[in-house]
């Protein structure tokens, strides 16, 4: 029997796994190989400089927005799916390394063996699977229709100048996620609208700002001077591209 983690624990309703040394070593091999062989799509902002803030700044150009959050993203990616994705990029012993990268699903819903939260290779393997799903076809359609799409792991945000176009794309993305066996979180999806809260930031045409709730949460308790300066710099960074 393969043992690839030390222990697991619950944090804010999420099950997290601590990989063991052998698993971590294989994770480094996987990550190096994938980074050398794979160019991730432009819309994957978790692999772009600036991350979600860069995505927010690009969305400022548009008037309407929607977001779709993938429920239990990692725990929806099956071991077989990982093996197939690794095989397609020419990774040797793809099935063996897929086993090292997966655990028995701690949830009742979903595949039996899945990617866990806590393994360092989970984000890049989940991204590899997502980029080969029907979702990416809809991303291409969105771009052709004048919309902008950003994906940051399990968060997809789409914006554009035409609300009717976004309504069509919203429905198409929900269908594509279902076809990819990735379910949208009904508590975190927002149909096309003229303002949005995403990444604990308010977003509307020309304006992005950290939400007051996030600011209050940060200052609700003692913070070091360094942490305070870093947070204030982050808030300023989020807002630096706002319209005058």
From TrEMBL:
Using the record's annotation, list all stretches that form the Reverse transcriptase domain.
Answer: 1-203
* Cross-referenced InterPro entries: DNA/RNA_pol_sf (IPR043502), Rev_trsase/Diguanyl_cyclase (IPR043128), RT_dom (IPR000477)
Gene3D superfamilies recorded: 3.30.70.270
Note the Pfam families from the entry: RVT_1
Q: What is this protein called?
A: Reverse transcriptase domain-containing protein
**Biological source species:** Bradyrhizobium diazoefficiens
């Amino acid at each position: 029997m393969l043992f690839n983690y030390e222990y697991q624990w619950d944090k804010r309703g999420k099950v997290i796994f601590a990989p063991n040394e052998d698993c971590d070593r294989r994770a480094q091999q996987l990550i190096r190989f994938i980074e050398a062989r794979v160019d991730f799509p432009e819309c994957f902002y978790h692999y772009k400089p600036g991350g979600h803030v860069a995505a927010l700044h690009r969305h400022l150009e548009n008037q309407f927005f929607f977001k779709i959050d993938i429920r239990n993203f990692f725990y929806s990616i099956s071991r077989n799916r990982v093996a197939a994705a690794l095989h397609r990029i020419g990774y040797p012993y793809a099935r063996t390394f897929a086993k090292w990268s997966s655990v028995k699903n701690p949830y009742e819903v979903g595949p039996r063996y899945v990617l866990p939260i806590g393994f360092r290779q989970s984000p890049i393997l989940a991204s590899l699977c997502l980029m080969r799903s029907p979702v990416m076809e809809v991303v291409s359609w969105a771009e052709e229709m004048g919309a902008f799409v950003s994906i940051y792991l399990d968060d997809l945000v789409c914006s554009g100048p035409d609300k009717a176009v976004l309504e069509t794309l919203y429905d198409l993305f929900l269908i594509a996620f279902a076809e990819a066996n990735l379910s949208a979180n009904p508590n975190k999806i927002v149909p096309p609208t003229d303002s949005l809260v995403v990444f604990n930031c308010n977003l509307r045409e020309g304006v992005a700002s950290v939400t007051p709730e996030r600011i209050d949460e940060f200052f609700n308790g003692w913070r070091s001077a360094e942490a305070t300066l870093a947070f204030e710099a982050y808030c300023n960074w989020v807002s630096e591209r706002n319209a005058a």
